[in-house]
Amino acid sequence: MTEKEAIRRLLKEADLYRNQGLLSDSKAKYMEILSIIGKSKTLANHKQLIEGVKSKIRAVNRSLNELKDTLEKPELSEDLQHLIKKLFCFSQTKEASAIEGAVALAKFGQYEQALKEFHKLLEQGVLPLVIAKNMIKCYAALRIPEAALVQFSKWKTRDFFSREDLKYIRAFLKTSLEKEGFKVEIPELEATPSLPSKPKKKEEVFLEISAVSLHLRSGPLAGQTRDFDVHFQSANTVTILIPAAQKNLADSLVPGTRLTDIQCYSPITVFRSTGTISGAAQIKQGPRRGDYTMDITIDAD
Amino acid sequence: MAIFNAKDRIIECKLVYCGPGRGGKTTNLEYIFKAFHKQTDSDMVSISTMGDRTLFFDFLPMGLGKIRGCDVKIQLYTVPGQSRYRSTRKMVLKGVDGVVFVADSLEVRRKANLLSLKDLAENLKEEGYNIFNIPLVMQYNKRDLEAQGIPLLPLDTLEKDLNSKLKVPYHMASAITGEGVGRTLKEALLLTLRHLQKELHWTK
Predict the structure, then answer these.
(1) Residue range A24-72, pLDDT digits in tens
(2) By the CB < 8 Å criterion, does B143 face chain A?
(3) What is the predicted ipTM?
C-alpha cells in the first residue's frame, strides 16, 4: 500500500469514527496520519496536508471539550421526572413507593424536585430520619451547604426529631458536606433542647444500618451467608429486597423466623446481632414486581 | 422483575440493552420503534445529551399480543454506555428479566466491549443476578461497515472475547439498516419468556 493509499484509508476511518461520536478513536487515527505525513519525503502538498489534518484534530478536541462540559445530570422536564418516579419505584406501600420515587429522582440528578418531594414526605412524618439524610445528600450534591445549614437549624427548632436523631443528623451533615469539600461550622446542639422533646422510644436511637449479612442456620440454604442492602429502616426494623429468582431463599424466611447471626453494617461501625423476620411480601407492581420484601427486626439490646 | 397477573392473564417483563458507548443500543430501539410500530404502546422516550449520547436511559414499552392465551407486555430499556454512568446503569438494571449485549464490531472498540461486558457482569451481581443464568443474547453490531472497508473484528475474535464462557446465542447485525435487529429481539424475548415460564408458569 502506498503512503497515499494508507493516508486515504486512515482518513476514512478517522472521519467515520468522528461521525459515530467515537472521538478519542478518531483523534488517534488523525494523529497516526500526521505521523505518516511527518515521516514522508515523497508526499506533495506536505504543509497543506498537515494543516488539513490538524484542523480536523482541533475540531475533535472542541467536541471532546464540549462533551466534558456537558452537564452530567441536567434538569429534566416534569413529564420525564414523573416517568422516572413511575418506572423506578418498586414497593407496594404508598409511603415506601413515594420515598423510592423521590430517591430515584435524586439518583437521576433531579435534586430540586427530589427535595420538594422529601419536604412533603417529611411534613407527613414519613420515616423522618431517612428523609432528612436524603435531603442532606441533595443539598450536598447541589453544592448549597448554606441551605443545608438553614434546614438543619429549622429541624433543631421544630419537634420533628429527638435529640439523639439530631445528633445523628448533625454528624451525617458534617460528613456529607466534608465529602463534597465544604468546611462549614455546624451549630452544636444546645445542652438542653429548646423544645420539650417527644418521649423517646427505644428504637429511635437505633443506629442507621446500610447493609446486613445473614448467616442462614436452617432451611434449604443452611450454612450459607447472604448479603443485602438495606432499602429502608424504621427504628430497629430494616427492609431488604430478595430477587424473585431467589424464591427458595424468600420461602425460608417466613415471618417469625429467628435469625441468630446477623452482621450489621452502619456508616460508623459493624456489629453482630440477632433478630426476627417481622414481615414478608411479594412486590406486585413496578419494575421490582415479583421480588420479595423482608422486614427484619433487629434485637435492640 | 416480571409480574404475572394470573387472573387477567397478563405477563410483563423487562429487557435491557447493554454494551459499550456508541455501540448502537439506542439505534436498535429506534429501529424497533419504527419497524414494530403497531406493537408499541406509546412513544419511545430518550434522554440524550450532546452528540445523541444516552444520558439516563431509553424506554420503549411494547405489547406482543396474546401468546398461549396470555397478554405479553415488554418494556425495552437501554443503559448509558459511557463508563462514567455506572450508577445509572445499575439503577436501570434493577428488576431486569433479560439482557441484549450490543457489542461494537469495530476493531478499535475491542477493549471497550470487554470492559462493558465486565461492568455488566458486576452490576448484575450487585443486583443479585448471575450473568451465566440470566437470559442473554449477544449482538455483534455495525457489520455493514465491512463493505466500506472499515476494519472490523472477525466473528471468531468477538466470540472468543465475549462469548467463549457465556456461550449464549449471538446475531450479526447492523442496527442502522435494521439487519439482525428483529432476530436479536425475538431470540432475547424467547429466552426470557422461557426462563419466566420456569419461574412463574405463565402459560396455560
Answers:
(1) 999 999 999 999 998 888 888 888 899 999 999 999 999 999 888 876 7
(2) no
(3) 0.90
Q: What's the rounded Cα separation, in Å, for the pair A102 and A173?
A: 19
Q: pTM of the predicted model, to two decimals?
A: 0.76
Residues B71-121: tens digit of each pLDDT: 999 999 999 998 888 888 999 998 899 999 999 999 999 999 999 999 999
- By the CB < 8 Å criterion, does B59 face chain A? yes
- Give the type of residue at A279: G
Residues A142, A34 share a domain: no
- Interface check for A8 against chain B (CB to CB < 8 A): the answer is no
DSSP assignment string, chain A: --HHHHHHHHHHHHHHHHHTT-HHHHHHHHHHHHHHHHH-SS-TTHHHHHHHHHHHHHHHHHHHHHHHHS-SSPPPPHHHHHHHHHHT---SSHHHHHHHHHHHHHHTT-HHHHHHHHHHHHHTTSSHHHHHHHHHHHHHHTT-HHHHHHHHHHHHHSTTS-HHHHHHHHHHHHHHHHHTT---PPPPPPSS-SSPPPPPPGGGGPPP--EEEEE--SSTTTT-EEEEE--EEETTEEEEEE-GGGHHHHHH--TT-EEEEEEEE-SS-EEEEEEEEEEEEE--SSTTTT-EEEEEEE---
By CA distance, what is A26's nearest residue in B? B108
| Chain B residues close to A285, C-beta within 8 Å | 3
**CATH of segment(s) B3-200:** 3.40.50.300
Q: Cβ distance B88 to B57 under 8 Å?
A: yes
- In Å, how far is A269's CA from the nearest CA of chain B? 22
Residues A250 and A284 in one domain: yes
**What are the sequence ranges of the domains in chain B?**
3-200
